[in-house]
Write a structure and sequence with these properties.
single chain; 295 residues; alpha/beta; 9 helices; 13 strands; globular
C-alpha cells in the first residue's frame, strides 16, 4: 500500500456565491463541508484512484469527529492520532460571477510532544506494509523542522515529498524518489523569486543536486515542469471547466504515486498525475473523483 502521512488536516467549508463583494454582507447560495488538508486530500485521491493506501493523520475536537465520519463514509483506510486541539477549519469562497476562488486558511494548532510521539509509533507500525510513503503538508507551529526527517529514518521504500521550507531541505539528504512543490512553495523554500523559467529550473536542479531523484513543480493552471535522470520536460495541462481548483496539487501528487505503483514510464507518470489534477478541478469537493477510463 501507499502510506499518506502529514500533520495538518483540515475540515474544509466550501461556500458558493453568485457574486462575492468584499467588504459587504454576502449570503452563500450553497454551503458544504468535507475532510481536506493536504494529507487527507492525498489519501482520498489515492483511495478514489483505486490503489491500496492508508492515511495517517492527527485529528481533534468536533471537527476531528466530522473528519472521521466523512472518511468512514468514503471507506478511507486511516489511522487517527487523537489531539487535544480541534482540527482547523479552512474556508473556500467560490465566486461564480468572476470564476475566482478565495481560500481562507487557518493554521493548525500545535501538537503536544506526546501526540507527536504517538504519531511516530503509529508510523513505525504501518511502514512495514508500505510500498511508498507520501509526505505532504506543513508542520504545525512548534514542531521541530526535522520531524519528517527523523520520521523517515530507516525507511527503505521510495518517498515522495510535497512539503516546503526547512522541513523539505532537511529531508533531501534522505534522497527522496520525488519532490513536488508548487512554484510558490519552491520560491519560499529558497527565499528567492522564481519569476522566469530559468530561475525555476535552477531551483529544481538545486533540489536534485541536494538529493531528490525527480522534481515536479506545478503552477496552478499553467505548465507542469519535471526534471529527473532523463532530463527536463514542460507539460501543458488540458483545459477543463473549473468548478473548484482546491486540492489539484494534492491530486497531482497522488496521481504520480499511483502511476509509479503501476510501473508506468516516467512521461506517462507525469501525464497521469496531471490528468488526476485536471479531473479534480471539475468537481466541487476536493480529491473525490472517479478514475478516467482513458488514463
Amino acid at each position: 500500500m501507499i502510506l499518506a502521512v502529514g500533520l495538518t488536516p483540515a475540515w474544509q467549508q466550501i461556500l458558493t456565491f453568485r457574486s462575492l463583494a468584499l467588504g459587504e454582507v454576502n449570503r452563500a447560495d450553497d454551503v458544504i463541508g468535507c475532510a481536506s488538508g493536504k494529507v487527507l486530500n492525498v489519501g482520498c485521491a489515492l483511495h478514489h484512484l483505486g490503489v491500496a493506501s492508508h492515511t495517517l493523520s492527527p485529528v481533534g475536537g468536533h471537527t476531528g469527529e466530522q473528519i472521521r465520519t466523512d472518511c468512514a463514509v468514503l471507506g478511507l483506510p486511516a489511522t487517527w492520532i487523537e489531539s487535544r486541539s480541534s482540527t482547523r477549519v479552512c474556508t473556500t469562497l467560490l465566486d461564480r460571477s468572476s470564476e475566482q476562488t478565495t481560500e481562507l486558511v487557518e493554521d493548525s494548532a500545535p501538537l503536544l510532544n506526546s501526540e507527536l510521539e504517538a504519531y511516530r509509533r503509529a508510523f513505525v507500525e504501518l511502514i512495514p506494509q508500505a510500498r511508498m510513503v507520501v509526505v505532504s503538508g506543513s508542520l504545525p507551529k512548534g514542531t521541530p523542522s526535522d520531524f519528517f526527517t527523523t520520521l523517515l529514518d530507516g525507511v527503505t521504500v521510495p518517498v515522495m515529498l510535497d512539503i516546503r521550507g526547512p522541513e523539505l531541505l532537511a529531508c533531501l539528504p534522505r534522497r527522496p524518489w520525488l519532490v513536488k512543490p508548487n512554484r510558490e512553495e519552491l520560491a519560499a523554500t529558497f527565499d528567492r523569486p522564481l519569476a522566469t523559467d530559468d530561475e525555476l529550473l535552477a531551483a529544481m536542479h538545486e533540489l536534485r543536486s541536494r538529493g531528490a531523484e525527480h522534481v515536479v513543480v506545478s503552477d496552478g493552471p499553467h505548465a507542469v515542469w519535471s526534471a529527473g535522470p532523463n532530463g527536463v520536460e514542460c507539460t501543458a495541462p488540458s483545459e477543463v471547466e473549473v468548478v473548484n481548483p482546491i486540492g489539484c496539487g494534492d491530486c497531482l501528487t497522488a496521481g504520480l504515486a499511483v502511476a509509479w505503483s503501476e510501473g508506468r514510464p516516467w512521461r506517462d507518470t507525469v501525464q497521469f498525475g496531471i490528468a488526476a489534477a485536471a479531473e479534480n478541478a471539475r468537481h466541487l469537493l476536493p480529491a473525490r473523483f472517479p478514475r478516467g477510463s482513458s488514463w
